[in-house]
Design a protein that fits this description.
Elements lengths: L3 H19 L6 H32 L5 H24 L7 H29 L7 H30 L3 H9 L9
Helix pairs in contact: 2-3, 2-5, 2-6, 3-4, 4-5
Length: 183
């Protein structure tokens, strides 16, 4: 039978460990918002890069069924962009003037991205199914670079949002999901 004193000491030590673990710095509203923004942009950028790489690869080595495959990649970019816009618009920014301005900036970027990918999808959709490889490659050649450019523009806009104010800068600096966007 254990002695009461040793059981109490173990229980107190365990309680102190739990309390100490809970005393860590909690994330600020700016860090939480920045983390959500960076996660949304990171997921979107990854999908956009995959679509752009696939389209570029297919245009460099045209094959049978290329148009359908490119249409699928374009749809993936549209879906990812719509998800980005939805995710960003659903965020609640920090309750500051800087937070409201930053939220407006990310929503503007998302809307611009939606416009660009819809245009890209329309370009692919307007291509005749009977188009030959040369005609397809010529019509769609700018598509891969447009998607890559869009991802670069979004990263630039994200940098601009990060610079909006000291509290936001700190939030972006502290958010783990924002590490991928640091220079």
């Amino acid at each position: 039978m254990p002695r009461l004193g040793s059981v109490s000491a173990v229980a107190i030590a365990a309680l102190l460990v739990v309390i100490a673990a809970g005393c860590g710095k909690s994330a600020s509203p700016e860090e939480k918002w920045a983390g959500s923004v960076c996660t949304a942009f990171g997921d979107w950028k990854d999908q956009l890069q995959t679509s752009a790489d696939d389209i570029t690869s297919q245009l460099q080595s045209p094959q049978q069924g290329m148009v359908a495959s490119i249409q699928s990649d374009a749809q993936s970019a549209v879906d990812a962009t719509n998800k980005l816009a939805s995710d960003l618009k659903a965020l609640t920014p920090p309750n500051t003037e800087q937070g409201a301005k930053a939220q407006q900036q990310v929503e503007t970027v998302a809307t611009q991205a939606q416009t660009t990918v819809k245009q890209a999808k329309a370009t692919v959709g307007n291509l005749p199914a009977t188009a030959g490889a040369a005609e397809t490659a010529k019509a769609l050649a700018p598509l891969g670079s447009q998607l890559q450019s869009l991802a670069t523009q979004a990263s630039s806009a994200l940098s601009s949002v990060q610079a909006a104010g000291s509290a936001l800068q700190e939030g972006f600096a502290d958010a783990d999901s924002c590490k991928q966007f640091r220079d």
